[in-house]
Amino acid sequence: MKAQRDEFIEYLFNQAKLDPDIIFISVDMGAPALDQWREELPNQFVAAGISEQNAINFAAGLAAAGKKPFVYMMACWVARCFEQIRYSCAMPKNPVTIIGNGVGLGYAPAGPAHEPTEDLCYMRAIEGIEIVSPSSSEQVRFIAESSLKAPTLRYVRLERSVSERLAERVGGDLISGVDQLHLIKGRSDRRLTILSSGYLLNRAIDAAENISKESGWSIQILDVWKIKPLDLDVLYKKIKDSELLITLEEQARDGSFGAAILEATSDLNLLIPTLRLSLSSAFAFENGTRDELLDHYGLSKGEIESKILEAIGERSKND
Amino acid sequence: MDLQSKANSIRREIIRFKTDTGNGHLASSLSIVDVLVSLYYDENTWFNHYEDQIVWGKAHGGPAVYPILSDLGYFPHSELEKYCRPNGILRLHPDASIPGCNFVGGSLGNGIGYAAGLAFASPNKRFIVILGDAELYEGSVWESLILINHFELKNLLIIVDRNGLGILGATEELLKLEPLDAKFKSFGFNVVVQDGHDYEKLEKVFETPPSTPTVFIAETIKSKGVHFMEGKAMYHTIIPRDAAVVEQMMDELK
């Protein structure tokens, strides 16, 4: 299975051969797909060194002059150039694509410095930015295509690893970015929706089966891979019949994905009780694999199940 | 053209709109006026404002260019009176919404990288980025210098307005920048150090466009032209507004 970065870069490389305006800026990050690019299109490759701030300013200048710049860095370092993204890209509306690799705990066991667990919070604050978090190859390709066909300031949050069952699925909703990934029909007509994206969708799928079995509720899993802007119309249609929402994210709790969904439902006047499941700490200092750390920091399959069942119980108490 | 009297009239206009509102950084605007006058008005200098672009790093000094742009027809002179007012187009920091200006102003250390992108993308155009000396404390400036040197972006001239002062005082007392020329040289640049208020010397500096990546350190005096303010750090944020004092400032520049 190909890494998301390689799928993205391969697509881009093929386009770059035909379009000299496409320029790839690497902040000292490699990828197998990049080796050929560097060799064949050296004039469209810039090794900016480990200098995220300069790389973003430089890319903004390129975009202002009509080029199509892509800045490739570890996702954790976008924090470091927040000011440059806000100032040089967002304010003058320069369409720069920022490819952040390794979201969530994807770089485990590298430790919290390498694991962006608040990036949704701070990047969501930037006016006019699009934030996407793909889990399937189809989504990755669509985003890569969009970055050329519909250029805008875009933060592409790539996974270092996803499972085959997520990567290989096709036919999802590519337009709205709110995709119904899974629907389990329960015994009763009560329904809850789990909203998530990326790596954690796996845990959502795994947990949903048991939860439905135990509670009898129907469970819908929405892959909300376009986190900003949220397509409120589509979101409304897909959650209006749910009596409980669960947001599940590999982020710290404050201001992140769950907060985005609460803001959206508030704007939609959909007052649906919402349980936010996130990492118990932004700083995962424990040693472990990504899965072990998710287990340790509050997002084990068992904990996801029990917390959701508890929320269902609370709902049922009020019947 | 008598460049000195042109500069005097520009300084008077800057003082007028700055003291009217009290907004912005008068001292930082005054130090860069003569460099701008040389670029925009001296026919023997290479800068062509119709084709070449200036990016403001030290955008707080950028309003120095407003009287020049109005004089050259980019916007009506009456806009100067509306500086920083709700119905005016001129802002405290120049940005691309203002005719004749580029980029967004107000965050130090970013203009140089942005200008590097412009210069890289358009090798047949010429760009100037104007940095404040205290802006050099921003690490991103040095990140950009590495890149500009590597790609030999000779179509980007870096001008440092070396007025010697930050907000808190003299750079050399607060946090040493010197030897500045040696620092730039060690980054691979051709370095020119020259009096930033002497038109003959400026004419030589700007005689021909640089043929290698170049930094021009313009040795300037903060608040240049208003004697009681000259070289005094406290005036970075203080704009005298007392009518009698303003008239005294204007008289000095007649």
Summarize the structure.
With 319 residues, chain A is an alpha/beta fold.
Key attributes of the depicted protein:
heterodimer; A: 319 residues; alpha/beta; Rossmann fold; 2 domains; seven-stranded mixed sheet; five-stranded mixed sheet; 12 strands; 19% strand; B: 254 residues; five-stranded parallel sheet; 36% helix; 11% strand; globular
Kindly describe this structure.
The complex is a heterodimer of chains A (319) and B (254). Helices cover 40% and strands 19% of the residues of chain A. By secondary structure, chain A is α/β, with parallel strands linked by helices. Chain A folds into two domains: 4-101 and 137-165, Thiamin diphosphate (ThDP)-binding fold, Pyr/PP domains (Rossmann fold, 3-Layer(aba) Sandwich), CATH 3.40.50.970; 178-317, Rossmann fold. In chain A, the strands form two sheets. Chain A has a seven-stranded mixed β-sheet with strand order 2-1-3-4-6-5-10, sandwiched between helices. Chain A has a five-stranded mixed β-sheet with strand order 7-9-8-11-12, sandwiched between helices. In chain A, strand 3 (68-74), helix 4 (82-90) and strand 4 form a beta-alpha-beta unit. Chain B is an alpha/beta fold and 254 residues long. Chain B has one domain: Rossmann fold, CATH 3.40.50. Helices cover 36% and strands 11% of the residues of chain B. Chain B contains ten helices and five strands, in the order αααβααβαβααβαβα. Chain B has helices spanning 3-21, 26-31, 33-41, 66-71, 111-121, 139-150, 171-174, 180-186, 199-205, 243-252, and strands spanning 53-56, 127-132, 156-162, 190-195, 214-219. In chain B, helix 9 links the parallel strand 4 and strand 5. Chain B is globular, with a radius of gyration of 17 Å. The mean pLDDT of chain B is 97. The A-B interface holds A 46, 48-49, 51, 53-67, 69, 83-84, 87-88, 91-92 and B 95-96, 102-104, 106-107, 109-122, 139-140, 143-144, 146-147, 151.
